[in-house]
């Protein structure tokens, strides 16, 4: 049976969807294509994590700046008589 399926897949692009009860249940693709998809996903995940780390670092810097700015704004103001 598997040999028949492989023969059918080799005539096309090596992909098929198995349908059971009028619903897609499985997808069959070539191993090389699957590996490529997994590698691409892993690469994209690493890039997304780098972007998140960069965004967090920028926001931490902004928060620190805002906290320092608030402290400066709330600094005590003193009024002193000038000797004139």
What can you tell me about this protein's structure?
The structure is a single chain. This protein is an alpha+beta fold and 84 residues long. The chain has one domain. It contains two helices and two strands; from the N terminus they run αββα. It has helices at residues 2-11, 31-73, and strands spanning 16-20, 23-28. Strands 1-2 form a two-stranded antiparallel sheet. A hairpin with a 2-residue loop joins β1 and β2 (23-28). The model has no long low-confidence stretch (mean pLDDT 82).
- The number of E-state strands comes to 2
| Major β-sheet profile | 2 strands, antiparallel
The overall number of domains is 1
Mean pLDDT: 82
- Low-pLDDT sequence parts: none
Output the structural class: alpha+beta
The helix-strand sequence is HEEH
Summarize the structure in short.
The protein is built from 2 helices and 2 strands; from the N terminus they run H-E-E-H.
List the helices and strands and how they pair.
Layout: H1 2-11, E1 16-20, E2 23-28, H2 31-73
């Amino acid at each position: 049976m598997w040999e028949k399926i492989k023969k059918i897949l080799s005539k096309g692009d090596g992909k098929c969807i198995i349908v059971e009860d009028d619903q897609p249940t499985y997808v069959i693709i070539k191993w090389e294509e699957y590996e490529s998809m997994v590698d691409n996903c892993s690469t994209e995940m690493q890039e997304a994590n780098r972007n998140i780390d960069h965004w967090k670092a920028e926001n931490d810097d902004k928060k620190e700046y805002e906290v320092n700015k608030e402290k400066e704004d709330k600094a005590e103001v003193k009024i002193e008589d000038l000797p004139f």
